[in-house]
From TrEMBL:
Protein name stated in the entry: Thioredoxin domain-containing protein
Keyword Phosphoprotein included in the entry's annotation: no
Keyword Mitochondrion: no
Alphabetical GO biological process terms: protein folding; response to endoplasmic reticulum stress
Organism (species): Mola mola
Similarity-based family: Belongs to the protein disulfide isomerase family.
Length: 508
């Protein structure tokens, strides 16, 4: 879930320009016509009838305000054109307008494309996140028929600029082939072929029941099928080797990077125009090969203004480059390569120590600003957050904010009001912390801005506020939690900070 949030956020950043352009248009076009540009417009009133009428109903659940949704909608419209006259009916459902229906259909999460078959509302097939209109069509084709083209002459696949996956099987009715087809269905953006031609295989000096990745007349990698090989393993193998050992982070590659099944990423932040770029990039690339399938290697050009947000996320300033950061996308902990000499050996050592669990997580804190505790709203930093928040005598209400986020900034006046309203109360502290400049040393999930209460008498407990963002509601919450903390005190044992799952969970 957290990863999806990150993915969504970064995709939103990449596509924000086009969204802004598109949102207005969408709003103007919100008419109730049931069909527009060949797309059935679904709503609560017509969904069941549409389901009944169309044996194959392909529905794009979208939300006009999401950047990723906007990208998908464009692809979906392209695919819908290709579906005209076929047995598949393309439809869209605006989940922001049709909230009840979306909820009933369990389609409230990320934008998705689902195929409903024979009027079955409960078991739609979910289309893998597509990279193009064509991949939606390919997915439909593969699920309807054979998932890979049978080829005898491989010369074309071999010469292709794009990656082609070729399965070489002795018998086409073998279980391996089913696993292979299942992988093809999950990866509609990739070309798949099947061959039984012995010549092909002898050319590469390999045996049968093997998967080959070919690109520009070159064998990139081979994978020997084993009885225990699962579809998932095959998908990881193909998606990893589909990418180069090192990928530059750009608007184009972001989606691929963030949807990679490899959840540890090594990021090299470097200036392309710097004198030692070639040397450092080459060292990074040389180190990458040994960690494929385990760590994804990505480099980020710090000269590129569009990478600003990503750098902010990793708290890298351009003058600090070159440097390497590791991020574990499961828990979002980042690690810093503790060396000024970015050579192959130090990068390798760093990756090994990370994989062995020996790397030390990077923590970062701004120094406490001058007069940080003199204003009504106290300005905290990573260094003093714990010290201030976990106070046995004071209840501390903290706003975790991102300075560049409009959603965060709109809460500032409310926070001032709250501080004003509680200023006579010795046992209450109202504070805020810039979460983009300070690593928060807590196990957190969810998104910023986040309002977290640290009740007095109840050291190391954190309560996430999720109510209305109004002064009155905040005050009620504060009083209620303070009462509760007093009562709970009797029964709570001392829990070790860091080893407990906090109620309050924040991060990207
Ligand atoms: C939605 O999910 C709930 C809980 O998993 C399930 O009971 C329900 O049948 C689902 N509805 C549909 C339309 O799939
Ligand atoms: C990444 O984080 C998860 C959750 O904390 C952990 O289980 C996993 O071992 C970490 N991966 C590595 C390579 O450290
Ligand atoms: C983060 O918390 C852990 C566990 O309490 C502690 O060992 C570590 O020193 C803390 N790190 C920082 C930078 O505060």
């Amino acid at each position: 879930m957290r990863r999806l949030l990150l993915l969504r956020m970064l995709l939103a950043l990449c596509f924000c320009v086009s969204v802004n352009a598109g949102t207005k248009q969408n709003q103007n076009e919100q008419k109730s016509s049931p069909e527009k540009d060949g797309l059935l417009q679904l709503n609560k009133g017509n969904f069941n009838a549409a389901l009944k009428k169309h044996k194959q109903l392909l529905v794009h659940f979208y939300s006009p305000l999401s950047g990723e949704s906007h990208r998908l909608l464009a692809l979906f419209e392209g695919a819908a054109e290709g579906l005209q006259g076929s047995g598949v009916k393309a439809a869209v459902l605006d989940v922001s307008k049709e909230k009840d229906l979306a909820e009933e259909l369990n389609a409230t999460g990320l934008p998705t494309i689902k195929l409903y078959l024979s009027g079955d509302k409960y078991n739609p097939d979910v289309c893998p996140v597509p990279q193009s209109s064509n991949s939606i069509l390919t997915w439909l084709k593969r699920r309807a028929g054979s998932a890979a083209d049978l080829v005898t002459d491989l010369s074309q696949s071999e010469a292709s600029e794009e990656l082609t996956v070729v399965g070489f099987f002795k018998e086409l009715n073998h279980e391996y082939v089913q696993v292979y087809y299942a992988a093809a269905l999950s990866l509609p953006d990739v070309n798949f072929a099947v061959t039984q031609d012995d010549e092909v295989i002898s050319k590469y000096g390999l045996t049968h029941d093997i998967i080959l990745l070919l690109k520009k007349s070159k064998l990139i990698q081979a994978y020997k099928m084993m009885p225990q090989t699962s579809k998932e393993q095959l998908v990881v193998f193909i998606t990893v080797y589909q990418m180069d050992p090192v990928t530059e982070y750009t608007g184009k590659t972001a989606a691929q990077i963030l949807s990679s099944p490899v959840l540890s990423h090594a990021l090299l932040f470097v200036s392309r125009s710097s004198g030692d770029f070639a040397r450092i990039h080459s060292a990074f690339s040389s180190a990458a090969e040994a960690f494929r399938m385990k760590i994804l290697f990505v480099w980020v050009n710090v000269d590129e203004p569009r990478n600003g947000r990503l750098m902010e996320y990793f708290r890298v300033r351009d003058f600090e480059a070159p440097l390497v950061r590791m991020v574990n996308l499961t828990d979002h902990v980042t690690y810093h390569l503790p060396s000024d000499t970015l050579d192959v050996e130090s990068i390798r050592r760093f990756c090994r120590s990370y994989l062995e669990g020996e790397a030390k997580a990077k923590m970062q804190s701004e120094p406490p600003p001058e007069g940080w505790d003199e204003q009504p709203v106290k300005e905290l930093v990573g260094m003093n957050l714990e010290e201030v928040a976990f106070n046995p005598h004071r209840t501390v209400f903290v706003l975790f904010y991102l300075p560049y986020s409009q959603a965060s900034r709109t809460l500032f006046p409310l926070w001032e009001e709250l501080a004003e309203a509680t200023k006579e109360r010795e046992d209450v502290v109202i504070a805020r912390i810039d979460a983009s400049a300070n690593d928060i040393n807590m196990s957190m999930q969810g998104s910023y801005p986040s309002l977290c209460l640290f009740p007095a008498l109840h050291a190391e407990r954190v309560v996430l506020y999720s109510g209305e963002r109004k002064l009155e509601d905040l005050m009620k919450f504060l009083d209620r939690e303070m009462e509760k903390a007093k009562k709970d005190r009797a029964v709570v044992n001392h829990v070790l900070y860091g080893s407990v799952q906090h109620d309050c969970t924040v991060s990207f």
